[in-house]
Amino acid sequence: MSIALVGIIFVQAFWIKTTLDNKEEQFSLNINQALKSVSEQIQSRELRDYLAVYQKLVDSIGSPKESQLTAVFRYVDRNENTNQTYIYSHGILENDYNISAKLFESKSEDSASILEYKGIKTTTIIDEAFDREMRNMSSIERLQRVERLSLMDKAKYASVFMELAALKPIHRRITNIELELLLQRELGDRDIDIPFQYRVFNGDFATKIGSDNYTNLSGLKKYKSPLFVNEKGENDFELVIAFPERKVFLRSSLTTLILLSLLFTITIVITFASTIYQVLRQKKVSEMKSDFINNMTHEFKTPIATIKLALDAINNKQVQDDSLKRTQYLKMIKDENERMNFQVENVLRISQLDKKENFIKKSICDLHDVINEATLHLNLLLKNSNAKVEIDFLALVSEIEISKDDFVNVFANILENAIKYSSEDPQIKIITENKKDKIVIKIIDNGIGMSSRVKDKIFDKFYRESKGNVHNVKGHGLGLSYVKKIIDLHNGTIYADSEIGKGSEFIITLPLSFKM
Question: What CATH number is given to the structural domain containing 326?
Fold first, then answer.
């Protein structure tokens, strides 16, 4: 299950990474296509502007019937001082007389018409002719004039106009408004609606064309496309664009899927961990219950065997005639019976507390009297173990509202543990004192002590330490659990402080019935 769970997590992580990589690749492809389209549109628009002006100039001077100008604008020079443009024209005028070669030679197989070519060389000086005409012409007029040009004419003059346009600075060839509108339209057509910053570069130098915030985008991935590419595939300018919110945009489409994937994965992990925890806990509880049954069997087996032996002895004639021995055996049977009854009552009371079926009957009692009564219950056990109990009642106020019988059992359980878990003659000290509106009871012994790990678990039901030198001590693992429940029901607290080899100290704090 662990391997499968780790595998699922790795597969999901790989799937998310692959999807993000694909999104990144698709995004880059869309951006490059958009930039290429913008570059082509800008160059096409510029050429259309020049062709429209050329057509207007041709319209203004007219052209001979059956004639066409086949070459023009071979060289352009500009004088910055006079702000004049020199156009050195070398044109070829083609005249078609619609006369076939067969007119002069009847046997000739050449059916082509006879053409006349005339070379035309002129130098024209214009003052911002093209720029002025382009500014004065409307978009519709430009389009109409360009449509009148044949494909042949457009192809013939494209290179000439490209050379002419290259002489102009970039800010006169394109504007920020045009470039930004084209970028927005192309990106919008590809469903990319996030902010962007752009700049046109001439080599390594930034031009005036670009957004104002571009200088603050260091470290971002940038996309580039050439502008105004000539016939040789060369270009001086490059359009660069960057997207500050690119990562957010790429992840936004997967956010829901990623969150759902993480949610389900976390749910599986929590469920898996909970299952393992419950399995281990049930295994531990099963072991503790088995230990409890074994100990309970031992606790019942011993008094039952003792009672059987006592009954067999009473049936003996010699014992029947001896009233003293008969009385001793009867007392032994009574003590063992009370011992079994105490064990059964202890188990039943714990069960009732778990099911909340026990209704504790509280009354005002003197806690010192309750402690003395608990020590009297263990008088025989104290004598048999050579235990010494020192009682120091320092509390001036000891009246408290409690369930007397339950608290007799509480102190009896703690004292019994202090006797059982001692490697030498038990030395027990009981101290009471008042702190504000509470009474504090300290029970200190010189027993074998507990480790911090054991100390944290001693109030758990069925828990018994089975390592070290305590494996021969019999019990049910219910005593301190019962103690903790009774004290909790009285709004009190119990704390154990202990070190191995240095004994233990149980500190019980209970609220007083009467505030001091």
Answer: 1.10.287.130
Query: How would residue 472 be classed by pLDDT, with cut points 50, 70 and 90?
Result: very low
Q: What is the DSSP string of 53-122?
A: HHHHHHHHH---TTEEE-----EEEEETTTTEEEEEEEEEEEEEEEEEGGGT-TT----PEEEEEEEEEE
Average pLDDT over residues 157-182: 79
d(CA 87, CA 77): 7
Q: Are strands 438-444 and 427-435 parallel, antiparallel or unpaired?
A: antiparallel
404-453 pLDDT, tens digit each: 888 888 888 888 888 888 878 888 999 999 988 899 999 998 888 888 77
Q: Say which residues have a Cβ less than 8 Å from residue 178's Cβ, sequence separation at least 6.
A: 42, 45
* Residue 203 identity: G
- Using an 8 Å Cβ cutoff, are 243 and 196 in contact? yes
User: Is residue 371 domain-shared with residue 335, that is, in the same domain?
Assistant: no
Query: Taking 70 as the threshold, does the pLDDT of residue 13 lie above it?
Result: yes
Residue 403, judged by CB atoms within 10 A of its CB (0-12, 13-18, 19+), counts as buried
Per-residue pLDDT tens for 269-302? 899 899 999 999 888 878 777 777 776 776 677 6
Question: Same structural domain for residues 317 and 404?
Answer: no
CATH code, domain carrying 505: 3.30.565.10
- 3-class secondary structure, 252: helix
What is the predicted pLDDT for the residue at 73? 43
DSSP for 8-34, written as a single string: HHHHHHHHHHHHHHHHHHHHHHHHHHH
> How far is CA 60 from its chain centroid?
73
Same domain membership, residue 487 and residue 405: yes
249 occurs within a structural domain = no
For residue 493, what pLDDT band results from cuts at 50, 70 and 90? very high
Structure-model confidence comparison of residues 493 and 322, the more confident one:
493
Average pLDDT over the chain, rounded to an integer: 76
Residues 403 and 507 placed together within one structural domain of the fold: yes
Answer whether residue 314 is part of any domain.
Answer: yes
For the segment 244-269, the average pLDDT, to the nearest whole number, is: 84
| Total domains present in the chain | 2
Q: Are residues 420 and 489 in the same domain?
A: yes
Residue 471: φ, ψ to 5°: -70, -20
Could you give the CA distance from residue 415 to residue 392 in angstroms, rounded to a whole number?
15
Domain that holds residue 327: 282-349
CA pair distance 149, 55, nearest whole angstrom: 7
Q: Are residues 320 and 399 in the same domain?
A: no
Q: How many CA atoms lie within 13 A of 279 on its CB side?
A: 6
User: What pLDDT sits at residue 318?
Assistant: 79
- Considering the domain architecture, whether residues 431 and 319 belong to the same structural domain is answered as no
